Amino acid sequence: MDRQKRLGEEPIGSLLLKFSVPAIIGMMVNALYNVVDRIFIGNIPDIGKDALTGVGITLPIMTIIMAFGMLVGIGTATAISIRLGQGKKEEAENILGNAFVLLIITGVVITIVGLLTMEPVLNAFGASEVTLKYAKQFIQVIFIGSIFNVMGFGLNHSIRADGNPKIAMFTMLIGAILNTILEPIFIFVLHLGVRGGAAATVISQFISMLWILNYFTRGNSILKLRVKNFKLKKEFIISIFAIGISPFAMQLASSVVQIISNNALRNYGGDVSIAAMSIISSVAMIFMMPIFGINQGSLPIIGYNYGAKKYERVKEAVKKASIGATAIVVVGFLVVEIVPHFVITIFNSDAELVRVGSNGLRIFLFMLPVVGFQAISANYFQSIGKAKMAMFLSLLRQVILLIPLLIILPIFFKLNGVWLAGPISDVLSALITAIVFYKDVKALK
């Protein structure tokens, strides 16, 4: 059966497995970039805790870089899926070509702006005199290779929209395996320290990018990168940005949260609490990346069937995706509540960090079980092209609720106030999302 035709005809459960499992593996592999960085950097002799804090300071910047990859990447993938569902292959190929150019421009701008503003930005993001050095060493290398990051991450979404989720998975797998091999060599064997960790990440992202470009030029892709489609066209740019603005805004919001959080942590808990949050973020990422994988896998299924007006298949896809997502986050909840000390010591065994981190981990991720449904529901609106609602629901958890809580709660509960902001925001956003989602789904006819 034709790869695109099967989106509208094969059983939804089978499609979700075919598309989401590779995407989940791919996203888990993608999470390893940051998690492996933190594990190896956190275990550098003598400087591990301070270096881990420094890398934690750069997290908002890493999030912003990923945001631009999502703006173009997810916007492109959704636009392509909908047009393929409508039978407009040539227009989908035009969008892919425009996305390629947009990602190049984005990567170059990030490199230039990042290198020029690095130190004041890191200071504003919560760096101290001790941790600034390590933060600069790490993020400088990341900025230099940012074009590989946004290009690989952005175009990988389009491979799934092209109907080839396994290739998308292998793309991330290649990069993550290479990163895991290079990290200890660069950090411990070549004694490059924090810079070595960043260099391993950049080299791995470069290889992933080459793999993707080969797929869209010489591989068996339905859509091809053609020079004639590199000329930017207003209607395609608007189409990409209109849909991609929701995950972009969510990621930017996440970076704002990280900045506010880092400063609150520094004020109420010192550098050790920032190191703890760096670990907590890595742990949360391990369990959230599968949810993003389910979202990516379901995106072309929902988008295609919505474009083809097969609404019962749309509903079934969302329902089954929500069940799978909830199962994953419940497992994550059990892990962080039962063995928090063990989780923290994987990154660093400093007694104070283990104590602060374990307490923060259990509180901050206490409402993890409701996050799966909230994320899938927001993705539903994104998949069908309702960018404004998708953006609202995404911002609800990351900005509208979380930022005020991060500002207000520490005033009364000090460091615990920072940790409490997470679960309160999670449960309130899930309740509001449920109301909006069920109302919209019932209207599908």
Provide a descriptive summary of the structure in words.
The chain is globular and about 60 Å long. It has helices spanning 12-42, 48-57, 59-85, 89-124, 132-144, 146-161, 165-189, 193-217, 234-269, 271-307, 311-338, 340-347, 351-364, 371-383, 387-400, 402-413, 415-442. Helix 1 (12-42) packs parallel to helix 7 (165-189) and helix 4 (89-124) runs antiparallel to helix 6. The chain has 445 residues and is mainly alpha-helical. The chain contains 17 helices and no strands. The protein has one domain (5-442).
Short description:
This protein has 445 residues and is an all-alpha fold. The protein is 84% helix and 0% strand. Belongs to the multi antimicrobial extrusion (MATE) (TC 2.A.66.1) family. MepA subfamily.
Task: List the SSEs and their pairings.
Blueprint: H1 12-42, H2 48-57, H3 59-85, H4 89-124, H5 132-144, H6 146-161, H7 165-189, H8 193-217, H9 234-269, H10 271-307, H11 311-338, H12 340-347, H13 351-364, H14 371-383, H15 387-400, H16 402-413, H17 415-442
Helix pairs in contact: 1-7, 1-8, 1-10, 2-5, 2-10, 3-4, 3-6, 3-9, 3-10, 4-5, 4-6, 4-9, 5-8, 6-7, 6-8, 7-8, 9-10, 9-15, 9-16, 10-11, 10-13, 10-14, 11-14, 12-13, 13-17, 14-15, 14-17, 15-17, 16-17
